[in-house]
Amino acid sequence: MGRGKIEIKRIENSTNRQVTYSKRRSGITKKAQELTVLCDAQVSLIMISSTGKLFEYTSSSTTTKSIYDRYQQTTGLNLWQSHYEKMQENLNKLKETNRKLRREISQRNGEDIDDLTFQQLRGLEQHMEKSAERVRHRKFHVIGTSTDTYKKKVKSLEETHNNLLRAFEERNNEDCHYALIDQEGDYQSAIGLANGGPHIFAIRLQPSQPNLRDDEGYASYGSRLA
Q1: Domain limits of the chain?
Q2: Which superfamily does 14-77 belong to?
Q3: Banded pLDDT at 226 (limits 50, 70, 90)
Q4: GO CC annotation: what is one (predicted)?
Q5: CA-based, 20 to 30 A from 104: which of 97, 124, 141, 204?
Q6: pLDDT tens sequence across 178-197
């Protein structure tokens, strides 16, 4: 039983349309490859799907550009002329825009204003006043931001200074204990005791002070300490 004839028209179902495109693209690519090998022909094949994907096949002995060049030589047509004209038109528009911008910049610098009418000069003046106002507003904003940052730094430094000052005063107000040590053994014991507390200080009398070593001097010195 033979296959039925397929009506050649657009396939409405997008999934079926994509499947048909993929199958027939493979078939036409195979035919192009066979034509290249069997007939030693230069073949270039370009296909763009409905989703915008490009597929290109070119025989290994040539390139797509060379095919286009051969086509132009054979038919006498210039395939790039329209594209070149569009590029030239776009280039001219860009040049005109650049010329106008350069003229506006020079006029804002006080140049090329001899040919301007009163209305044009008035408009230029208003534009410059608005620009100056925006610049001035931005300047004051930057100054305000810098001032706020400086104030915050000063406040932070003042808080740090006050905290250190309070800590210093609290440490000075703490009671400190002193011990007068005469014998070497007692002095070592006091040193060990002092190491256990930060507010105990041991003082040892030096032998080179005889006036403090005798009983009378030691007693008088002890009475003065009392």
Answers
A1: 14-77, 78-115
A2: Transcription factor, MADS-box (3.40.1810.10)
A3: very low
A4: nucleus
A5: 141
A6: 444 455 555 455 555 444 44
